């Protein structure tokens, strides 16, 4: 369980986050949506211990983020895939585990690559793979770490829309298969609605504007994009965003 | 890399690429030979190529021995310079107080003509190997510091976030991320350092030594022996190229686990 209690972040007098109260349950998929500069990435970094809050506290299963980091309990996926260019896909998947001081498991890493559709690319270097494929490697790396919490910072931000949709479906599948707690930051409203159990809408002043319970089937594929329920909820989130920034 | 490309690079293509510089060299030697013949230049001013070759073949031990003396200065001095330069680069890259304290003096060291230091060293260290080693090290360390320190900031910030997110620690970050990302720049500095080391060794041999190719050139100059000078110079060029080639080979080997490719 992730618990944010009155979290605020100031950057040299500029308020990036203010009064964030949020509780994320185990195995929950939460998306955070808002325009650039709304503080959503800062929120994710505060949860992951990469940004110290100037007010309030973050707890991960009762511990500080620093303790969770040391226990390899936080798996980050960034907008940039952050794969090491001189390592193969398999080596990149095991790399983070090694950096956490844990034993890498090569075969498990290769199984993971296969499970994200990269069978046959185990020895490929990042420059030999497309942007979407590299991001799949980065996701496999976060899962291989064995963390219970996945923190994803606009991981599909640099991909084309078709690849985004495909990867969205896959991330939902991975989440159902692996039983992880996911916090997923995005500026795409459809993506935020499609992926989420709950969707947190960030307002203009670094505050949470509203939290939507997303009412869609647990198992989701591309057909969801065309469904009426999906489109209505996308419209509702959009409306909230536009009112907040009007 | 596909097999076909590999074949071209190391097979026929290699010969083709080498043919241009080899051709240019042959042309230059031809012009040299033609000039000495056409203008009847006296051999003590500009000996013909065959006279220089004869000089080399007449006493190969002399040139080999002195080439080794020069190599000794380059290797010892260059190694000291590279190790010290690398250590300073780590300090500059990771210790802000150290960077602020030392950077103005690094810039000063760059402006200072190193040749001017050699006579000073002579007073304190005498004419032995140690003077040459210190002088070569002084000349060689500088490009290593600047290039390596710059290279150590090559790794994207998100890579540091990634390692911090698992509390990997400073040492792992430096060894597994920063250093591999720094290698292309570090090798650029290393190549400069090796080239400058040869320059430094020759200067040291002019000022404070009684052996080495630089010393041979100096003595030959005093005795107006152009053939000996040119022979020593030719050996020096080969030696410099060999050292440069060694660094290039090391760079290629390091490319397997770094950002060099």
From TrEMBL, chain A:
It comes from Halalkalicoccus paucihalophilus. The keyword Phosphoprotein does not apply. PANTHER family: ALIPHATIC SULFONATES IMPORT ATP-BINDING PROTEIN SSUB, TAURINE IMPORT ATP-BINDING PROTEIN-RELATED. It comes from the Archaea. InterPro entries: AAA+_ATPase (IPR003593), ABC_transporter-like_ATP-bd (IPR003439), ABC_transporter_ATP-bind (IPR050166), P-loop_NTPase (IPR027417). This is Putative ABC transporter ATP-binding protein. One of its GO terms (molecular function) is ATP hydrolysis activity. Keywords: ATP-binding, Nucleotide-binding, Transport. Residues 2-229 form the ABC transporter domain. PROSITE patterns: ABC_TRANSPORTER_2 (PS50893).
TrEMBL record, chain B:
It comes from the Archaea. Keywords: Cell membrane, Membrane, Transmembrane, Transmembrane helix, Transport. Residues 67-247 form the ABC transmembrane type-1 domain. InterPro entries: MetI-like, MetI-like_sf. GO terms for cellular component: plasma membrane. It is found in: Cell membrane. The chain crosses the membrane at residues 20-39, 74-95, 116-142, 228-250. Pfam families: BPD_transp_1. Belongs to the binding-protein-dependent transport system permease family. Coiled coil: none annotated. The lineage of its organism: Archaea, Methanobacteriati, Methanobacteriota, Stenosarchaea group, Halobacteria. It is a multi-pass membrane protein. This is Taurine transporter subunit. One of its GO terms (biological process) is transmembrane transport. PANTHER family: ABC TRANSPORTER PERMEASE PROTEIN HI_0355-RELATED, ALKANE SULFONATE ABC TRANSPORTER-RELATED, MEMBRANE SUBUNIT.
């Amino acid at each position: 369980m992730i618990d944010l209690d009155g979290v605020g972040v100031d950057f040299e007098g500029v308020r990036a986050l203010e009064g964030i109260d949020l509780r994320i349950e185990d195995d929950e998929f939460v998306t955070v949506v808002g325009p650039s500069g709304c503080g959503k990435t800062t929120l994710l970094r505060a949860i992951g211990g990469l940004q110290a809050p100037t007010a309030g506290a973050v707890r991960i299963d009762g511990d500080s983020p620093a303790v969770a980091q040391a226990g390899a309990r936080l798996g980050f996926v960034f907008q940039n895939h952050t794969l090491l260019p001189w390592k193969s896909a398999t080596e990149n998947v095991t790399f983070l585990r090694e950096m956490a001081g844990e034993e890498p498991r090569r075969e498990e890493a290769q199984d993971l690559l296969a499970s994200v559709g990269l069978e046959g690319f185990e020895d490929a270097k990042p420059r030999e793979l497309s942007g979407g494929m590299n991001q799949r490697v980065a996701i496999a790396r976060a899962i291989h770490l064995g963390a219970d919490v996945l923190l994803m910072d606009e991981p599909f931000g640099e991909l084309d829309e078709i690849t985004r949709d495909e990867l969205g479906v896959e991330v939902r599948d991975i989440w159902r298969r692996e039983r992880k707690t996911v916090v997923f930051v995005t500026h795409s409203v459809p993506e935020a609605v499609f992926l989420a159990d709950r969707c947190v809408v960030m307002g203009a002043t670094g505050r949470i504007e509203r939290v939507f319970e997303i009412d869609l089937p647990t198992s989701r594929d591309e057909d969801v994009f065309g469904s009426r329920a999906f489109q209505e909820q996308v419209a509702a989130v959009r409306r909230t965003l536009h009112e907040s920034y009007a | 890399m596909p097999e076909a490309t590999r074949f071209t690079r190391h097979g026929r293509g290699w010969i083709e690429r080498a043919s241009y510089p080899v051709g240019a060299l042959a042309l230059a030697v031809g012009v040299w030979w033609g000039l000495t013949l056409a203008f009847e230049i006296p051999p003590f001013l500009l000996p013909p190529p065959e006279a220089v070759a004869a000089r080399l073949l007449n006493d190969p031990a002399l040139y080999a021995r002195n080439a080794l003396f020069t190599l000794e200065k380059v290797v010892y001095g260059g190694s000291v310079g590279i190790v010290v330069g690398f250590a300073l680069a780590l300090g500059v890259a990771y210790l802000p107080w150290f960077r602020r304290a030392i950077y103005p003096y690094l810039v000063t060291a760059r402006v200072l003509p190193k040749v001017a230091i050699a006579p000073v060293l002579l007073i304190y260290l005498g004419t032995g190997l140690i003077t040459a080693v210190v002088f070569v090290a002084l000349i060689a360390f500088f490009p290593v510091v600047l290039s390596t320190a710059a290279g150590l900031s090559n790794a994207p910030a998100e890579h540091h976030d990634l390692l911090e997110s698992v509390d990997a620690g400073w040492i792992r970050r430096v060894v597994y991320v920063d250093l591999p990302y720094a290698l292309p720049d570090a090798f650029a500095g290393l190549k400069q350092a090796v080239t400058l080391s040869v320059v430094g060794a020759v200067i040291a041999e002019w000022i404070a030594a009684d052996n080495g190719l630089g010393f041979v050139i100096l003595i030959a100059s005093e005795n107006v022996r152009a053939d000996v000078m040119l022979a020593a110079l030719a050996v020096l060029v080969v030696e410099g190229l060999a050292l440069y080639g060694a660094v290039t080979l090391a760079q290629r080997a390091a490319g397997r686990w770094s950002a060099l490719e």
